[in-house]
Amino acid sequence: MRWLCYLTLACSLVAVTVSICTWQQADDRANAALRRKEKALVEKYRPAIERICKDFDIPGPPAESESLDALMDPIHRLVVNLAK
User: Fold this and answer.
1) Do 71 and 61 contact (CB within 8 A), yes or no?
2) Is pTM beyond 0.70 here?
3) 38 touches 66 (CB < 8 A)
4) DSSP calls for 32-59
5) Which of 16, 42, 56, 83 is most buried, by the most CB atoms less than 10 A from its CB?
6) Residue 17 Ramachandran class (φ > 0 left, ψ -120 to 50 alpha, else beta)
7) Ranges of each domain in the chain
8) pLDDT of residue 7
9) H or E element, residue 77
10) What burial letters (b/e) apply to 19-37, b meaning 16+ CB within 10 Å?
């Protein structure tokens, strides 16, 4: 009967280990998907942001910007300056 308790304990430990690994992999995949989506949005909206910056004669976003924050920074600065 004691072996059954040890077998149950071992199965429980394996189940907990597998669930932790699966959770970490899912979290990593979700973060990677968010990064890909953000990069796609930056590529999609970069021409419009650059056109707006050119129209208002302000420096555009950095060429290497891969985040929406970096892409939208010139627009943010423009709005802040207009509010003054």
Assistant:
1) yes
2) no
3) yes
4) HHHHHHHHHHHHHHHHHHHHHHHHTT--
5) 42
6) alpha
7) 2-83
8) 87
9) helix 68-83
10) eeeeeeeeeeeeeeeeeee
